[in-house]
Amino acid sequence: MTIERAHWPEPVPDRLQQLWLTLVVIAGAVPLLSWLDWRIAVLVVALFALRLVALRWHGAQPGRWLLVLLTLAAVANCLYVYGNLSGRQGGAALFLSMLALKLLELRARRDLQLVAILLGFLVVVQFLFDQSLGLALYLALVIGGMLALLADLNGAAGGGRLRPALTTTTRLALQALPLTLVLFLLFPRLSAPLWDLGLDAEQARTGFSDTMEPGAVSELVVNGELAFRVRFYATPPPPEQRYWRGLVLWQTDGRRWTVGEPPQGGPVSLALAAAADRLDYEVVLEPTDRRWLFALDLPVAAEGAAFAPDHLLRARRAVESALRYRVRSALDYRTSPPSAALRDYALRLPAATITPRMRALVASWRGEGADDQAVVRRALAHFNREAFHYTLLPPPLGPNPVDAFLFETRRGFCEHYASSFATLMRLAGIPSRVVLGYLGSEPNAIGGYHMVWQSDAHAWVEVLLPGRGWVRVDPTAAVDPSRIDNQSASRLLGAGNPVRFELTQGAWLAQLARGARQFADSIDAAWQDWVLDFSAEDQLGLLQRLGLGRLGEYGLAVLMVATFSLTLGAVLLGLVRAPRVSDPLVSRHARFCRRLARIGLAPHPGEGPQDHGRRVIAARPDLAAPVSRFLALYLPARFGPAPDPRAVVRLDALLRGFRPRRRR
Amino acid sequence: MSRSPERARWRGWFAARFDAMLRRARSDPDGVVRIGARQIYILPTRFGLVFGAVLLVMLLGSLNYQNNLGLLFTFFLAAVALLAMHHAWFNLLGLELQARPGAAVFAGEPARFTLSVRGRGRRARADLRLSGAEDAAAPLAVPGDEQRGCALAVTTRRRGWQPLGEVRVETCHPLGLFRAWCHTLPQAATLVYPAPAQRAPPPLGTGAGARAQPLGTGGGVEDYVGARDYRHGDSPRHLDWKAYARERGLLTKQFEGEQGRELWIEWAALATADPEARLTELARQLLDAAAAGARFGLRLPGVEEPLAAGEAQLQRCLTRLALFGQEGGDDH
After folding, report:
1. B241-250 long-range CB contacts below 8 Å, 24 or more apart?
2. Active-site option among A311, A450, A458, A589
3. Does the annotation mark A414 as catalytic?
4. Nearest-angstrom CA–CA distance, B247 and A412
5. How far is A52 from chain B (nearest CA, A)?
6. Which of A560, A579, B67, B207 shows the greatest Cβ crowding within 10 Å of its Cβ?
7. Res A479: pLDDT
8. Is the pLDDT of residue B227 over 70?
9. Do A320 and A235 belong together in one domain?
C-alpha cells in the first residue's frame, strides 16, 4: 500500500534571492580573480555583469544556445590562457568560469542551492593561493552570506525577509564555532600528501634569484614584504652580527655573479676548526618557491632543513608554503681550510674586465709588503676614505661595471660594493666569494620575535685568510655614514626602511608606522603559528601533554570523538533548555493541579485535563462547579482556535477562590 | 510478465510491514497530538547529500594539501550541517497538533479539517509543512507560545464518519539540508452525508386529503415568489439560470405552492434494492423537501425523525442517513 503523498511545488526563487546569491558569489570570487590571468577575469566579470543586467531586464537573459556557446568559450579561454585545466590556476579558472555561467541559469531553488554549496568549494580553493588572516575573515563573511541565503531559501521563518535568515545563520554559526574548534584541533592530519595533482605554485614570488648583478638586490629592497620571522630561544645577537646567509656565489663574468660549479669534491665538509657563541632559534620562512634557507652566520646544526656545501641550509623541496625550521648557529667560528682546487676556483677572474687602474689600486695596497689581512683592511679603508656613496638610486654603469663604479660613479648599493670588493680581492690573490642574504632584523616587541623583511636583503663578501678560514667582510659597512643617502631610501621605502639606515628625520612618524607594522605582523605571526602551521606533530604534542601520547593517532581519534560528543551535547543542552519558558496558561493549570493534588486528586501521568476533570467531579461532586468552570475557560484558551486574551486574568480570579479541602 | 502480480503482492506486503513498523504520534485523550522524540524521523534531503559530497571533497583536498584554513572552513560547514540536523529535529519536538472537523459534506465532496499547531515553550518553529494523504498545506511558521492554523482537505467517497487520517508534519528548517518528519494521527472525523441521487421518486404527501403529488415537477405550475441563495442539493430545475447568466451567482427559485405541505420520507416507500442507492434517493428527497420549504419527517427501519421544517431538520435527517446502519455511529 503506497500512499500517494501530496507534494509541495518547489518554490521559484525570487529576484531578491537571485540578487543575493549573485552578490555573494561576486564577493567570493573577487580575491580569486586577482590571482588569475586578466583574460579569465575579463570573461568572469562580463558574465557577472550579464547576470546583474538580466536580473534587472529579463530580456537580457541568454537563451540555451547562447549559454552553450558561452560555456565552450569559457573552457577555450581557460585552455588558451593556462594550457591545462588541472593545474592550480587552470583548475581554479575553469571552476570559477563555470560557477559564473551557472549563475545565468537559476531556474529553481535547487539551482541556487547548488551554486551556494559550490561557492563553499570556491572559498576553500582560494586558500591554495593565500592563507592570510584578512582573507580568511573576509571569506568567512562570504560563507555567512551563503548560509543566510540557504536559510532564506528554506523560507517560512516568518516576520520579514532578511532578519530571520540572518538570525538563524548567526545562531547556527555561533553554535558551530566550538564544534569547529574541536574538529580543527583533534581531527587527525596527514603527515604527508596522499597524492599530488601537481598543483604547483605557478606565480612569481619575490625573493632572491641565484644570481647577482647591479640592481638585483636594490630591486628587492624596495619590496615591502616579509622574508621570514625568527624566534630566538635566548638573547638575540647584537644587530651588527645578524647576517643571514642564504647563497654563496663563486663565479663572475665581470658583471654577474653566479653560483658557478665550485669543485667541492667528496662529501660536504662542515667541519669547523672552532665554533663558539652558539645560539638556537627558529625561523618561519615565507614561501619563496626556492629551496634555499637562511640562517645566521654560521649554522652548525639544523632541524627541518638539510645542509649544503659552503655551510648553507637547503629545504627538501621548494618552499611553497611557510616553512618552519630550527637552527643552531655559531657566531664566532673558524672554518677549516678548503681544498686547493676550491681555493683556485675562488681566484678566477674574467681577464677582459680587469683594467690597469684596478691592477694599480691593488698593487698599491699590496706594494708595501702587506699580508692578506692588511690588504683587506686597506681595501676597506679605501672605501671609507674615498668619496663612496651608498644609495639606492645609483647612476647607470657602463659595460664594465666594477671599473666604472670604483673609479667613476662611486655610488652604489651593497651589490656594487660586494662585487667590486670581491673582484679586487681576487686580483690581490686573496680567494673570495660573494654571499647573498639578509642583514639585520626588526624585533617585534608584541609578538616576541624578530622580523626580517625583503628590504633587509644584502650582499657581502667572504675572503679566505690563511689560518682563519673564510672570513666575512662587509664592504658596504665601510662606507662613511655621512655618505649614506637617507633621502632616496626613505622616499622609496617609507616605514619599510631597513633598520641599518637609522632614520632620524621624521622619526616619530616612522616609529609610529613601524609600531603599526609590528602589531599587524604579530597578528599574522600568531595566525601562522596557531592556525596555518598546526600539524600532526602539534596534535601529538597536545596528546602527550594530556598524557595520552602512547595512544598515537588512535588516541587522537578517540579523544576527538569524545570531545566532539561532549561539546555537541553542551550545545544541544543549551538549545533545549534556553527557550523553555513557561506558558502562562500552563502555569495556571499546574497551580490548579497542585491544589487538587493536596486532596489526592493529582492528574495521572498521561491523563488529559478533560479526563482528569471528569475524574475529579466523579470523586468530589461538590467541586463540579469550579472545576468545570476552570476547564471551560482553560481548554478553549489553550487549544481553541481564537484564545481569549483575558483568559489568564479570569483563571487567576477563579484560582483565588479555589482551595479544595479533604473531606472529613 | 507472469511474475508481475506476484511481485506487486510482495511489494504490497513489504509496504504494509514497513508501514506497520512506522512510529506514529497519536492523540492524547484530550485530542491533542504531541510529537515526542521517538516519533521523529530524519534524513538528509537531496541537497543535503550534495552538500555532504562537496564537504567530503573539500575535506580530502584540504587534508591532502595540509591546508589548515581549508580544513577550518570545511569543519565549520560540517558543524553547521550537523547542527542543522538537530535544529530540524528540535523544530518538531514538542509540537502540539489538534485537528477539528469542518462542516458535514456530501460524499464525493472534499471534507475540510482545520489543524492548529502550537509549540511548547518560547522556541519559534519555522517551515512546518503539514500534509495529508491528498492535500498539503502551505508551510507554517509558529512563533513561540503561539498557535497557528491551516486546513487540509480529504476526498470523501462513502457516507459515515470520514476520519482525517494520517497527517505528516515535516520540516527542512533551517537550511534545507535535512528533512525531519513525523507521522501523526490526530483524532478528527467529519460527517459525510450520502451523495444525493440525481433523481428520486416523489415522497408521499400527508395531511387531510392529500394526493400523491410529484414535487418539483411543475415548471411554472406554482406561483413564483422569489429567489434565495443556492444551497447544495437544490434541484437544478429550480435554478435561476437567467440570473446566473447575468453573473448574479447561483440562485434557486422558490415557489409558493410547495410551502406548508407535510411529507414523510420513508425507507419503505422506495423500491430500490441496493440499500446505499436507496439512501442516496432518500437524501435527494430530503433536499427537495427542504428546498420546497415543506415540513418533513424521516422514517428508517428502527429510526424515526418526527415532522419539522428548516435547515436544522434537514441536517438531523441527513445525519440519520449518514450513520444509518453504522455501528457506534451515534456515539459521536
Report:
1. none
2. A458
3. yes
4. 101
5. 25
6. B67
7. 79
8. no
9. yes
